[in-house]
Amino acid sequence: MAVATAVALLAALGGALWLAARRLKGPGVRQLHGGGNPSLMHGKTVVITGANSGLGRATAAELLRLGARVIMGCRDRARAEEAAGQLLRELRQSGSPEPDAGAGGELVVKELDLASLSSVRAFCGELLQEESRLDVLINNAGVFQCPYMKTEDGFEMQFGVNHLGHFLLTNLLLGLLKSSAPSRIVVVSSKLYKYGDINFEDLNSEQSYNKSFCYSRSKLANILFSRELARRLEGTNVTVNVLHPGIVRTNLGRHIHIPLLVRPLFNLVSWAFFKTPLEGAQTSIYLASSPEVEGVSGRYFGDCKEEELLPKAMDESVARKLWDISEVMVGMLK
Ligand SMILES: NC(=O)c1ccc[n+]([C@@H]2O[C@H](COP(=O)([O-])OP(=O)(O)OC[C@H]3O[C@@H](n4cnc5c(N)ncnc54)[C@H](OP(=O)(O)O)[C@@H]3O)[C@@H](O)[C@H]2O)c1
Ligand SMILES: *[C@@H]1O[C@H](CO)[C@@H](O)[C@H](O)[C@H]1NC(C)=O
Ligand SMILES: *[C@@H]1O[C@H](CO)[C@@H](O)[C@H](O)[C@H]1NC(C)=O
């Protein structure tokens, strides 16, 4: 009995040490990109959607550190102001130059609800009036496997926010991106795109709703959109690339119910195996700022390296058809 208990304790201790070692070693990208050069993004204006949480927040923090003027497009002003305040405090504590002082960056909070086309239009209208340039647009906000919900305009929520809202946003900001060229668009997709399909006959999931399928479909749409846009932007010096961040510990799983008893185990496993937001944000930061990807467009990245796509994500006719239908859905064409 005593022997069995001792064995169990030792096993638990060994397991915990192993997990801790793994965590300390870091599961993801270990070399942090851009770190160190506080003027790499100086004079550049960046828009990041969903910048108050998770990957968007970490991306905002790093680009701010690199000297950018970062516009946080967020649906909840209070949450966004709080995140912005925290980011500035963290920046000061880390001893970086004070934002607004010389080469330091700047944080601006703006309301943007991607589940409302009128909010997207208002955001862009204001931005086009107030900003003289836009160097980087990062389409980062996302909803993951929510129960069946509709956006203000009646679209299935995941397709509506992850794809359609960003589709309209990007199109409305294209003129400013072009006049600020060379400029960049960065789209945050997911490896889960593999399980999606663009089922044109039911884009609003009115016939049936499968939340995992709809998430994957929206992330496949992100890739098809990026590739079609890259094609349309050839010769403009505006590039667009799409990425998957890996598995990252963020608030994305808010709609996933984990039974109370399993939660401590889940927390332990995610702490040990998932990337931190800063690790997960490396590819976004890299594509937004690195001179290495100057002029590179229409590619798919993971861990700051180009990766291959499944044929369904490279299908040009599906990409074109999705573009045309999206234009109609968001009211760009009547
Ligand atoms: N975490 C991962 O493992 C993982 C893996 C693959 C891909 N991704 C992708 O990474 C991106 C960022 O997600 P995350 O992991 O950082 O999750 P997160 O912490 O939940 O952040 C998502 C952000 O999107 C915002 N958002 C949601 N609905 C919105 C709307 N209608 N209008 C404007 N903003 C909205 C959220 O705002 P609120 O805070 O107000 O809700 C939040 O700021 C997503 O596109 C996701 O698909 C994440
Ligand atoms: C929902 O979609 C996922 C991903 O496409 C698929 O694996 C799963 O079997 C589907 N579930 C149902 C109940 O159809
Ligand atoms: C794109 O950049 C190149 C190199 O800087 C420049 O020669 C060219 O005129 C630019 N094209 C446009 C359309 O801005």
Automatic annotation (TrEMBL):
| Catalyzed reaction equations | 11-cis-retinol + NADP(+) = 11-cis-retinal + NADPH + H(+); all-trans-retinol + NADP(+) = all-trans-retinal + NADPH + H(+); 9-cis-retinol + NADP(+) = 9-cis-retinal + NADPH + H(+)
Give a yes or no for keyword Oxidoreductase in this entry: yes
Q: Which InterPro entries match?
A: NAD(P)-bd_dom_sf (IPR036291), SDR_fam (IPR002347)
Q: Which UniProt keywords apply?
A: Lipid metabolism, NADP, Oxidoreductase, Signal
**Pfam families per record:** adh_short
Q: Which Gene3D superfamilies match?
A: NAD(P)-binding Rossmann-like Domain
Q: Its GO CC terms?
A: cytosol; endoplasmic reticulum; nucleoplasm
Q: Does the keyword ATP-binding apply?
A: no
Under Gene Ontology molecular function, one entry of this record is:
all-trans-retinol dehydrogenase (NADP+) activity
Question: Which domain of life does this protein belong to?
Answer: Eukaryota
Q: What class of enzyme is it?
A: oxidoreductase
* Enzyme nomenclature, EC number: 1.1.1.300
Q: Where is the signal peptide?
A: 1-16
Q: Family per UniProt?
A: Belongs to the short-chain dehydrogenases/reductases (SDR) family.
Report what the protein is called. Retinol dehydrogenase 14
